[in-house]
Amino acid sequence: MSSFRSDLAQEKILAEYLDTIYAKKELDFKRTNDLDLQLQGIDIIINFNEKEYLIDEKAQLHYLNADLPTFTFELSYLKNGILKDGWLFDPSKNTHYYFLISGIFLKDDKEELSHADDIKNIKITSVNRNKLIEHLTSIRLDRQSLGQYDLALREGSSFGSNVINELDGRYGGQMYYTKHLTEQPMNLQLRLSYLIQHGVAKKFYYQ
């Protein structure tokens, strides 16, 4: 099985497991299989207090059996050699909240997710997209400023971790430029504890 097909298969299995969590929390939710909606950054739609919330699930499926303290937010990537907006600032995305899925541990020392019952523990951190962008703007990391960092790091081929003045690399975050992927994404890597501390995120489900 190709890596792409394997990723899709694991995403489907994870979605099945997540749906059981949402059901236990008695959420009025609907998972969308509509490609147009998914391209708008919408995986599930939650109705609460007569309001509709559009959720984009982001999962660390490449880091099974690990509990990373950080999560990456995509700023840009390459497609056919052309620089494209990453999902954080992409104007075509209608996402209200990101559900960041991390700390995915499997039962019986398994290393690959093949069934929803394989999952032992999982964390879901809810991030308000607008609050995140507002917070970044408040510390002088708006779309334009991050775009300037992005271009400078790309021009300098500064792959890997890059500390920036506006964030404490130990407690806040940093820029991360990935070399080994074809898309060579530029990400803003932020600590989950930092997001929670600044009121941008909440612990939605930690078990």
Brief rundown of the structure:
With 207 residues, the protein is an alpha+beta fold.
Outline the structure in words:
The protein has helices at residues 3-24, 35-39, 129-138, 143-155, 192-197; strands spanning 28-31, 44-48, 51-59, 70-79, 82-85, 97-106, 119-128, 160-162, 173-177, 186-191, 201-206. With 207 residues, the protein is of the alpha+beta class. The chain is globular and about 45 Å long. A six-stranded mixed beta sheet has the order 1-2-3-6-7-11. The mean pLDDT is 95. The longest helix is centred in the first third of the chain and has 22 residues, at 3-24. A hairpin with a 2-residue loop joins strand 2 (44-48) and strand 3 (51-59).
Q: Class by helix and strand content?
A: alpha+beta
- The value of Rg in angstroms is 17 Å
Describe the main β-sheet briefly: 6 strands, mixed
Pattern of helices and strands: HEHEEEEEEHHEEEHE
Q: Kindly report how far apart the N and C termini lie.
A: 31 Å
Multimerization state: single chain
Q: What share of residues is helical?
A: 25-40%
Task: Give me the side-by-side strand order of the main sheet.
Answer: 1-2-3-6-7-11
* Average pLDDT rating: 95
Contiguous uncertain segments of 5+ residues = none
Outline:
globular
Give the helix/strand layout.
Blueprint: H1 3-24, E1 28-31, H2 35-39, E2 44-48, E3 51-59, E4 70-79, E5 82-85, E6 97-106, E7 119-128, H3 129-138, H4 143-155, E8 160-162, E9 173-177, E10 186-191, H5 192-197, E11 201-206
Parallel strand pairs: 3-6
Antiparallel strand pairs: 1-2, 2-3, 4-5, 4-10, 6-7, 7-11, 8-9, 9-10
